[in-house]
UniProtKB/TrEMBL annotation:
This is Isovaleryl-CoA dehydrogenase. Residues 122-217 form the Acyl-CoA oxidase/dehydrogenase middle domain. The lineage of its organism: Bacteria, Bacillati, Actinomycetota, Actinomycetes, Streptosporangiales. It holds the Pfam family Acyl-CoA_dh_1. It comes from the Bacteria. It comes from Planotetraspora mira. Residues 230-377 form the Acyl-CoA dehydrogenase/oxidase C-terminal domain.
Amino acid sequence: MDFELNDDQRLFQRTLREFVEKDIVPVASEWERSGRYPAEIVERFRQMGLFGMTVPEEYGGLALDRVSFALVFEEIARGWMGVAGILGSHSLATWMIAQHGTAEQRDHYLPDLATGARRTGIALTEPGAGTDLQGIRTRAVRSGDEYVINGTKTWITNARHADPLPVLVKTSEETPAHRGMSVLLVDASSEGLTISKDLPKLGYKGTETCEVVLTDVRVPVSRLLGGVEGRGMQQVLSALELGRINIAARAVGVAQCAFEAALGYSRQRQAFGQPIADFQAIQLKLADMATEIQAARLMTYWAAVRSESGAVASEAAMAKYFASEVALKTTMEAMRIHGGYGYSQEFVVERLYRDAPLMAIGEGTNDVQRLIIARALIQGTATLGW
Ligand SMILES: Cc1cc2nc3c(=O)[nH]c(=O)nc-3n(C[C@H](O)[C@H](O)[C@H](O)COP(=O)(O)OP(=O)(O)OC[C@H]3O[C@@H](n4cnc5c(N)ncnc54)[C@H](O)[C@@H]3O)c2cc1C
């Protein structure tokens, strides 16, 4: 058993950390407050090849191992979780196209998605259906060599930059409903595709999250992911496992940043003639934070390693659930340690506190993760132990 990063992963982590310290940390708070799009950071992602992290090398991607994939999200979220979102659903969708796409779809999209010349996201959620994806109402009806799509998707991250946007649709009314679901790759220029509004958010700024309306959008049959109807739910669920590792890693990054801020502040803030770090009540909080963050990190890397060799429904669910709860708790504790200053926009913990809850919701709520874990335990498919 080896708990160390290998040399390549260590070097990659150092490169990411230097990039985040230089190009993200100095601008994060100001840019998130102004609502400015972080175009320069996107350009740096491009230069570093990060848009290709889940794209096979033959298409020009980095084809990162899964621990390195987690490191990307951990390190970037340590600087600014919002911009990690720019890579989040992109990497999930590129993986899905690489894994499930036809040869023509892979050849057509992956080289440009790998360089960031094209970007993408994923459109699953609807106003009336999030957890219950089988309840979606977006329909695609076959008409000759095309599908005609009608419906509304909501909470779609990267929607203004996605080209193509993979959209989960119903292609038939078969029961059970998942048998009638498919993914269509919708090009941004498609007539009838409208980004109807940007959704105002508590945190997770730096990347847009939008409502998308599809009105008689026509896409060629060749844009049916994998070329066979009825596989959409299975394609999406496999991609969400990867997405949950990305969310877990982001949660670790946010929690780590909160811990570092709290540790630094507690050493420097004086009360009753001494640094508050000398008070045992503060020390206990710091000890709990560090211990829980390290447990979340190890669980995230564990799920990442396991995912190299197949499906990891329960492992990814455990990592996402645990790490996001740690992020929620740690950001609150960091705010307490900062006293009144933690509530001020001049200190980073205020942003971290607003960013943390998304990790308990996105890629499936934490209650849903607990149900996935419980189901696997009862069915005997969950892996506990090493
Ligand atoms: C900032 C942000 C970005 C997002 N980005 C994207 C994106 O890019 N693409 C995309 O498709 N979606 C995206 N989402 C949507 C996100 O995935 C959903 O919000 C999430 O899956 C929950 O769905 P919902 O909001 O419809 O909640 P609901 O499904 O309505 O859930 C409401 C509550 O009911 C509970 N619940 C539901 N079903 C069950 C059950 N069977 N058992 C027990 N409890 C249950 C949930 O746990 C939750 O507490 C984003 C959301 C946010 C906030």
